[in-house]
Amino acid sequence: MLATLVLERSALGGDYERFQARVAERFHLIEPLRRRLRHVPFGPPAWTDDPDIHVQRHLHHVVLGEGGGLDALALTASDIASYPLPKDRPLWEAWFVEGMDKSHAAVIAKIHHCAVDGVSGFFALAAFFDAEPFPAAAPSAPSWEPAAPPRPVDVGRAVVDDLRRRPGAAARGLGRVVSSTVALVRAPRVQAPLPFSGPRMSYNRALTSRRSVAFASVPRQDIEQIRAGVGASINDVLVALCAGVLRRYAIKHDELPGRPMVAGVPVSERSPEDPLTGNQLSFMFYGLPVHLEDPRERLAFVSRSATAVKDIYARAGRGLFSGLASLAPTKALGPIMRALSGVHAANVMRPVVNVLISNIRGPDVPMYVAGDEVSSIFPMGPLIEGVGLGVTVVSYRHEVSFGFMACAELVPDIHELTTGIHLEVARMLDALSPDG
Question: Is the C or the N end of the chain the one with fewer CB within 10 Å?
Answer without folding.
Answer: C
